[in-house]
Design goal:
The chain has 3 domains: 107 residues, Helix Hairpins; 58 residues, SH3 type barrels (Roll); 81 residues, 2-Layer Sandwich (Alpha-Beta Plaits). By secondary structure, the chain is α+β, with helices and mostly antiparallel strands. The longest helix has 55 residues. The strands form 2 sheets. It has a 5-stranded antiparallel beta sheet with strand order 4-3-2-1-5. A 3-stranded antiparallel beta sheet has the order 6-8-7, with helices on one face. Helix 1 packs antiparallel against helix 2, helix 3 crosses helix 4 and helix 6 crosses helix 7.
Length: 281
């Protein structure tokens, strides 16, 4: 019984000493917590200020997301270091720990580091900017921003797709918006029974009336192929890049209407079935 009481007293003294140490250490712990909270608030404020400043600057909008992410990471790192040093951890130990952690993380996240490097390559080489319509790595859409790890692209059906920067920098990039002019390539197939000269004049007349179809460079309307069931008329029209789809759809619709009005027919696949009667055998 006395032995149980002695053990109980030892346990009580141990927990009492631990509690005293915790109480003594509590102000330091609260200070570190306060530093972290204040640092987080400063981080948000700095990101907001950074975006406002960038909005007034002449820097390309594509860079904005990248700089915002970099500011966030730098301030967060400084906040964590200051909070740890407040807890009494020596700065040399913090630097050593950060270095070791950085090496371990670098080995574990080689793909992410390649994305960061890819982001820098894209920013410096500038193959596109925010607002450009591009095709890269099987994704086609409008560039919204470049972050530390990825490039955000919005597709025509309003889907947000994030392509890793490493993939972007290592892929073939097609920028549909870089040049001021684009060529609309169309092909109209007509029946062999129709007059292709007449069809060409109809197409040229439709193009000449379209206000967004450019006269210089001049459009091209020529027979491009003698197909299995149609004479295919190749049509090439130059327009401003922003008007590409308007010209594309308008010309197709207007040529169809004009062909119908002038009895020019579009051939379609037909199947001829020949039967053999008993009398033919």
């Amino acid at each position: 019984m006395n032995r149980f009481t002695l053990n109980e007293a030892i346990d009580f003294d141990f927990f009492e000493k631990m509690l005293d140490k915790f109480v003594d250490y509590l102000p330091t712990l609260l200070t570190a917590l306060a530093i972290f909270i204040i640092g987080s608030l400063i981080n948000k404020a700095m990101q907001s200020l950074t975006m406002k400043t960038l909005g007034k600057s002449r820097l390309d909008k594509t860079v904005h997301g990248f700089i915002k992410s970099a500011v966030h990471i730098v301030i967060l790192a400084f906040t964590i270091i200051i909070a740890l040093s407040t807890l009494g951890i020596p700065m040399t130990s913090i630097i050593a720990a950060v270095s070791a952690a950085g090496l371990a993380i670098g080995l574990a996240l080689q793909g992410s580091l390649s994305n960061v490097a890819g982001g820098f390559i894209v920013l410096f080489s500038k193959p596109f900017k925010a607002g450009d319509y591009i095709s890269v790595a099987g994704v086609e859409g409008t560039v919204e921003e470049i972050t530390i790890l990825s490039t955000k692209i919005t597709t025509v059906d309003n889907k947000a797709i994030y392509v890793p920067n490493g993939t972007v920098s290592g892929s073939t990039i097609v920028n549909f918006s870089r040049e001021p002019l684009r060529r609309v390539d169309l092909s109209f197939g007509i029946s062999y029974d129709d007059d292709y000269h007449k069809a060409i004049k109809i197409i040229e007349n439709v193009i000449s009336k379209h206000e967004k179809a450019l006269k210089d460079p001049a459009p091209t309307v020529r027979v491009g192929e003698l197909g299995a069931s149609s004479v295919n008329i190749t049509t090439r029209i130059w327009t401003n890049s922003a008007d590409y789809w308007d010209v594309y759809f308008d010309i197709i619709e207007q040529v169809k209407t004009a062909f119908d009005e002038n009895d020019i027919t579009f051939p379609y696949n037909q199947i001829y079935v020949h039967g053999i009667s008993k009398s033919d055998k």
